[in-house]
């Protein structure tokens, strides 16, 4: 094998994998064990010890050709190893009040790692909620992690494993690998990498279609005190759904600002710490723009649909869906009838949106949003409703 130099490593990830599961089951710690990056960087996240925003981290999976699985599989590259692929992880918050954030992240996933703690009965409330979320978004490729096995006895771990298998079976996941790990001690990470490589393939991409991307984060990268002439435009981050984008291309954002589409130029492209001249589907991409940096602050541009000018739907505040309720097989709830002017939460692509039921007839709903949104006929949106005193994921709608 010809030695590979670090400069020759792939600069763009080719697959997005979600870390999903109940709060405090170890998603962020597991992401750190796989990538070496701590995704809870927001001050409030550090203070509270939970993920609030979507976190992202890339790594390169590699293989030692001199060893057998699972020891052959590594979560990082070093000289002498065979490069498998670059992978992006999306760390989703597990707390129930942050479900719409998680749902918006599920819209850009190619596969998911469902993290379940061995020291708690399975399933916990958000364990089922997150599994339903990935099913709604048609994420079919799944690997399950039984984390924190270092905190329980062998007998307790076996009992918990049986609970996990039964839970997965009730939702039709009968052939999903369950990998026992201790993320804190980096135990069995090689087996997890092997399972991901076997179960979450890189999907086939269509580069011929017009460029399209959902914005999952946005930033103002200027430091305080930057001179006006040195200011850089807002940076938008997300995962390309189809097509290719290049530096210098003109792009459009919908619904834009106050319902007015934005047209801007691609000033720069980056994937993690790698600068790119062009970006394709797969991985998480940062696009530097000429948009006023003010609009990049605090994820103000999250939920925007980005594409070539003239190819995007116009912003709307009213649209209709065909509603499909989901069947909970473990924590069953009785979904109440729809009410006029009922407030619901919807995940429209990567945009968490408040919607009001304007009119309903059986499974046909006419909805009104508080802010303009971009929707396309046939797209799926996840719907959460207030059941009792809690927000619960109740179904999905197909835009008509």
Summarize the structure.
The protein is α+β, with helices and mostly antiparallel strands and 400 residues long.
Structure notes:
The structure is a single chain. The chain is built from 6 helices and 23 strands. By secondary structure, the protein is α+β, with helices and mostly antiparallel strands. The chain has 3 domains: 194 residues, P-loop containing nucleotide triphosphate hydrolases (Rossmann fold); 96 residues, Beta Barrel (Elongation Factor Tu (Ef-tu), domain 3), CATH 2.40.30.10; 84 residues, Beta Barrel (Elongation Factor Tu (Ef-tu), domain 3). The strands form 4 sheets. An 8-stranded antiparallel sheet has the order 12-11-17-8-9-16-13-14, with no helix packed on it. Strands 3-2-4-1-5-6-7 form a 7-stranded mixed sheet, sandwiched between helices. Helix 3 packs parallel to helix 4. The longest helix is centred in the middle third of the chain and has 17 residues. The N and C termini lie far apart (54 Å).
Secondary-structure element order, as H and E?
Answer: EHHEEEHEHEHEHEEEEEEEEEEEEEEEE
User: What is the number of strand segments?
Assistant: 23
What's the arrangement of strands in the largest beta sheet? 12-11-17-8-9-16-13-14
Annotated CATH architecture of the largest domain? 3-Layer(aba) Sandwich
The percentage of residues in β strands lies in 35-45%
Low-confidence stretches: 40-52, 94-102
As a whole number of angstroms, the C-alpha radius of gyration is 21 Å
Name the CATH superfamily classification of the largest domain: P-loop containing nucleotide triphosphate hydrolases
Mean pLDDT: 87
Largest sheet properties = 8 strands, antiparallel
Beginning-to-end CA distance, first to last residue: 54 Å
- Total count of domains: 3
- DSSP summary: helix tally: 6
């Amino acid at each position: 094998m010809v030695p590979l130099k670090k400069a020759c490593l792939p600069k763009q990830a080719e697959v997005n994998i979600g870390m999903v599961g109940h709060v405090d089951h170890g998603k962020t710690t597991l992401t750190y064990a796989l990538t070496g990056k701590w995704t809870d960087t927001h001050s409030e996240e550090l203070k509270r010890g939970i993920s609030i925003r979507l976190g992202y981290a890339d790594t390169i999976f590699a293989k030692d050709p001199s060893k057998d699985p699972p020891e052959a599989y590594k979560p990082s590259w070093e000289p002498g190893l065979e490069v498998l692929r670059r992978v992006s992880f999306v760390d989703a918050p597990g707390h129930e009040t942050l479900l719409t954030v998680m749902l918006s992240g599920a819209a850009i996933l190619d596969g998911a790692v469902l993290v379940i703690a061995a020291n708690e009965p399975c399933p916990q409330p958000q364990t089922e909620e997150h599994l339903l979320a990935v099913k709604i978004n048609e994420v079919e490729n799944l690997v399950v992690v039984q984390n924190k096995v270092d905190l329980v006895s062998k007998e307790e771990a076996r009992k918990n494993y049986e609970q996990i298998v039964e839970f997965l079976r009730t939702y039709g996941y009968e052939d999903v690998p369950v990998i026992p790990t201790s993320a804190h001690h980096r135990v069995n990470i090689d087996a997890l990498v092997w399972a991901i490589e076997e179960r979450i393939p890189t999907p086939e991409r269509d580069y011929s279609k017009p460029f399209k991307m959902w914005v999952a984060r946005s930033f103002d990268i200027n430091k305080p005190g930057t001179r006006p002439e040195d200011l850089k435009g807002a940076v938008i981050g997300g995962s390309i759904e189809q097509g290719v984008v290049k530096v210098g291309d003109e792009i459009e954002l919908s619904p834009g600002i106050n319902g007015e589409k934005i047209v801007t130029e691609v000033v720069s492209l980056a994937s993690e710490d790698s600068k790119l001249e062009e970006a394709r589907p797969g991985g998480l991409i940062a696009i530097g723009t000429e948009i006023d940096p003010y609009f990049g602050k605090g994820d103000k541009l999250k939920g925007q649909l980005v594409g070539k000018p003239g190819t995007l739907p116009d912003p709307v505040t009213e649209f209709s869906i065909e509603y499909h309720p989901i069947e909970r097989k473990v924590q069953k709830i009785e979904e109440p009838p729809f009410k006029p002017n009922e407030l619901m939460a919807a995940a429209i692509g990567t945009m968490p949106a408040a919607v009001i039921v304007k009119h309903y007839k059986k499974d046909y709903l006419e909805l009104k949003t508080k802010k303009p949104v971009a929707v396309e006929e046939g797209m799926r949106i996840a719907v959460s409703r207030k059941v009792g005193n809690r927000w619960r994921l109740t179904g999905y709608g197909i835009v008509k």
